[in-house]
Amino acid sequence: MNIMQPDSENALSVGPNALYFEDFVVGNEWKTPRRTIAEADVVMFAAMTGDYNPVHTDELFAQSTPFGTRILHGPAVFAIATGLEFRLGLKEGTAIAFLGMEWNLKSPVLIGDTIHVYQRVESLRPTKKPARGIVTFWVEVRNQKGDVCQEGQWKVMFHTRAQASS
Known about the structure:
CATH architecture: Roll
Structural class: alpha+beta
Radius of gyration: 18 Å
CATH superfamily: Hotdog Thioesterase
CATH class: Alpha Beta
């Protein structure tokens, strides 16, 4: 079976908020639900990755850093951002692949911070294959004060409606 063209038994399951490539408009924007960062997020990410840097895992050490307390791992913030963005449902059954990103870490995310994702369509590019197109999003992770903690571009390939109807 070709994963790009599922057979009728394995047809794409498209979510109620999902968008196809041609549904996106440059300038469209969304804000995700919020999520508060917990001690468990730091502990689980350290355990999963083996990154036990004391800035994340040792409060006494972290108090001596410019942050003044432990911080969540930067890649963990990105990972949580992808989950928050998924909750919008825009990609459910219509996204083909996450193609890449340019990503900047601007300020730390602390235990107890509440973050959300702001996302805007930056550009659209059809591909050589008419059944798909590439959407570039500008994405920001913002904390409860509105500060941008991480930001950058995400490129995602989507199915077109032509693909859905074939």
